[in-house]
Amino acid sequence: MKLLGDGQLGCSVPADSYLVYRALLDHLPEHDEAERLYLRQVDSCDATFLVDDAYNITGIIDWEFAVIVPARNAFQSALLMYDLGEIYDNQHLHPSPEEQRLAQIYRDAGHDSLATWAAQKVGFAYEQCLDTDPHWWDDLIASFAGSWKAATGTVTFDWPAWREEAVKKYRDGVFKDAAAS
Length: 181
Hints:
Elements: H1 2-5, H2 14-27, E1 37-41, E2 49-51, E3 57-60, E4 66-70, H3 71-74, H4 84-90, H5 97-108, H6 112-119, H7 122-131, H8 137-152, H9 159-170
Antiparallel strand pairs: 1-4, 2-3
Helix pairs in contact: 2-9, 4-8, 5-6, 7-8
């Protein structure tokens, strides 16, 4: 939030960025301090990992989006499995056939919690929303709409109505003049 307040993030639409990020923070699942954390490479596409002939990972490049996260985020399916058109164009977070297959592989191996996490995109939706440059307004709104629907279970999303409520709720924050922008 400090990065928003001093203009390092969301500088093209600071008040709206603040509202979005504050709402996302309020809807993140609680983290148990005793829970183990994992390194996740968010940009987990096929060009990010170096592998040998036996498909063992020998190196990782492009650390720009590496994060430390709880298991539910670390073991969600890889970005290359997502149907990004479905996510961005339709704001749906349903598992793709590839994600469903990965979840089934986990279930068959007796890892039900991994299967559940592989099919969820809540962590991905949050990551995408936080990584979207507010300068690309339509992308930010689409990304946030998907995140919000995943976090709250709502089926539809209306930015003007959501924003009006968010301004009322978060008016005490860094951007007290959010309604004016």
